[in-house]
Amino acid sequence: MVRKAFIIAISLSFFLLNTFGQDDIPDLNKKIVKYVKSVIGEQVDRGECWDVANKALTLNNAKWDGAFKYGEPLNPKKDKIFPGDIIQFKNVKVTYKVGNVIYKETMTHHTAVVYRVLSNGKYELAHQNTGFSGRKVGLSTLDISTVVKGKMYFYRPLSN
């Protein structure tokens, strides 16, 4: 019985590490996350949400349009999302419940960097110009199943 539980635990660990592991993160994404980690709690440039992605991509000589298309478009339902990928929000409304409290957030035009992938469709985001961190880079979670309206565009940064 103990051996069977051990084999199951090892198999589950292997599955989780391969599914959500950090080993296959593209090199440019790793550099984006390294930069973002270095500025958590600080204001990047003017403190606009866009400034974090702009600075991370520019410092790492990434290929992008210089506006809001941050690399290769991704479909989070089909493509694997990695830390360092970038999300552009347009007229997004999020509704979720914690205990007996219902929370609602709106992101009319917002940019965030995926800081960590918690599980499929659940991410820890790094962004600034938010209600919780003001003009400094802060971290928050996003479960895309709580998005009730709007569009999210996921991008994979590309090397030049």
Describe the structure using short key phrases.
alpha+beta, 3 helices, single chain, endopeptidase fold (from Nostoc punctiforme), 160 residues, 27% helix, globular, 6-stranded antiparallel beta sheet
Number of strands: 8
Quaternary: single chain
Number of distinct helices: 3
- Give the neighbour order of strands across the main sheet: 2-7-3-4-5-6
The total tally of domains equals 1
Question: Ends: how far apart?
Answer: 54 Å
Low-pLDDT runs: 2-20
Secondary structure category: alpha+beta
Rg over C-alpha atoms, rounded to the nearest angstrom: 17 Å
Strand % is 35-45%
The major β-sheet equals:
6 strands, antiparallel
Name of the CATH architecture: Alpha-Beta Complex
Return the CATH class.
Alpha Beta
Q: SSE string, helix = H, strand = E? A: HHHEEEEEEEE
- Taken from the alpha-carbon principal axes, the silhouette is globular
Mean pLDDT: 89
Structural overview:
- The chain is α+β, with helices and mostly antiparallel strands.
- It has a single domain, classed as Alpha-Beta Complex (endopeptidase fold (from Nostoc punctiforme)).
- 27% of the residues lie in helices and 38% in strands.
- The protein has helices at residues 2-20, 27-39, 49-59; strands spanning 62-63, 72-74, 86-98, 101-119, 122-127, 138-143, 147-156, 158-159.
- Helix 2 (27-39) packs across helix 3.
- The radius of gyration is 17 Å and the shape is globular.
- Mean pLDDT is 89; it is low at 2-20.
